[in-house]
């Protein structure tokens, strides 16, 4: 008996995923196929980050290194 192909292995793993996990994997695959397309959630995150930057709500690289020991 031969071992399963990669696609057969993927099919088996996909069948074990919850709907939420499957959605996350699908989003990841779609992002890899078209990395320039952002989800609505990603667009909102970018807009929030820009607003924080405009308000001066930033942390320097040095502060992050001190805080996380980098």
The SS-based structural class is mainly alpha
Can you count the helices? 4
Outline the biggest β-sheet.
none
| Radius of gyration based on Cα positions | 20 Å
Question: Residue-averaged pLDDT, rounded?
Answer: 89
The tally of domains stands at: 2
Work out the helicity level.
55-70%
Question: Could you please describe the fold and organization of this structure?
Answer:
- This protein has 70 residues and is an all-alpha fold.
- The protein has 2 domains: 1-37; 38-70.
- It contains 4 helices and no strands.
- The chain has helices at 6-15, 19-33, 40-54, 61-68.
- The mean pLDDT is 89.
Summary of the model, kept short:
69% of the residues lie in helices and 0% in strands. The protein has 70 residues and is mostly helical. The N and C termini lie far apart (51 Å).
How is the topology of this model organized?
Blueprint: H1 6-15, H2 19-33, H3 40-54, H4 61-68
Key traits:
single chain, 0% strand, 70 residues, mainly alpha, 2 domains
